[in-house]
Design a protein that fits this description.
With 378 residues, the protein is an alpha/beta fold. The protein has two domains: 277 residues, LarA, N-terminal domain (Rossmann fold); 77 residues, 2-Layer Sandwich (Alpha-Beta Plaits), CATH 3.30.70.20. The chain is built from twelve helices and 15 strands. The strands form four sheets. Strands 1, 2, 3, 4, 7, 8, 9, 10 and 11 form a nine-stranded mixed beta sheet that branches. A two-stranded antiparallel ribbon has the order 5-6. It has a two-stranded antiparallel sheet with strand order 12-15. β3, α3 and β4 form a beta-alpha-beta unit. The radius of gyration is 20 Å and the shape is globular. The mean pLDDT is 94.
Amino acid sequence: MREPVEVCVSACEAYEYEKVRAVLEEQFYLLKAEEVIRPGMRVAVKPNLVTRSTPDESAVTHPVVICAVVSLLKELGASVVIAESPGGPYTPSLLKGIYEQSGCAQAEQYGAELNLDCTWGELKAPKARLCRSFSVITPLLQADAIVDVCKLKTHCMMGMSAAVKNLFGSVPGLMKPELHCRFPEKEPFGTMITDLCQALHPVLSVVDAVTAMEGNGPTGGQPRHVGALLASRSPYAVDLACTQIIGMDPESVYPLRSAMERDLCPRTAEELVWLCEPASRFAVPDFLQPESKSADFITRLPKFLQPLATRLATPSPKIRTAECVGCGKCAESCPQHTITIRDRKAVIDYTNCIRCYCCHEMCPKHVIDIRRLSLFRH
């Protein structure tokens, strides 16, 4: 086992700063955070700020959680920079707007620098299975350590977004579609995400699950109260704990499946070492899964029929044309360039659509749905 398998899961019912900080302080103590965060280190905090969104929409890491983490890192003697590359152009103006709208700008009051350096460099990934180098934003490359501070959400392509998937935000905005093009299928894309996580090697991973996102995440779902904060020195172990909370099979979370295949974490949450409470204490039995969840019957079909059945059963993005404002964010994010704007409305050419759901994720008006053929609905 290459990574520690200790996970902290603690109750936290509301985004009250003193309560959140107290919970995280105990978790940092139990995880011996001082072993990986030492005085004088430059630490990059990587939140999930996927798009312009307010905290109450549950698409981004709540600013109270970010501020509490920053405060604890400063207490350990580190200098802290907030580093994120949302979807879309990686520019200072976009970053400023997202910092403000998400509430993350408050982290400055606790001693963090808000990164506005929009350069990037190459990160080698010698342990990779598929992708041996990545373009990664400069503040993460220059950091002595990375602390992953993510949001627990469903994800229409990867199943779940938590610690491991959050690190895809280290790739500069408009370079993300290039990786979708290189790895259009779910399993290799998940493997690539795990390659990236291994290369970045976050020393601590904190999951904001006070309020999570259910349904068609990572941006189009609904807030769901869970009342928990999680932390671990292993992003893979904390993700495994998260699957138990939202009732998702770990094998259906593609980056986690790849991590288990590499022996980076156990295959079942029961094998984790719980330093506070077990994740099962916070399980939400009716947590709404994404519409894109694969149809289970496909693996029982003859192999020669599986590709066709997969294509038919895989949900497609559908634009609610009457509500579309023609902003072009979906076209900008589409790795296959299958979306055009005609008469101020977005139109999808399904011929080359790879069902990556980037358009659904980046639509600021949330007017792109994920739908499968009625034959495969249940």
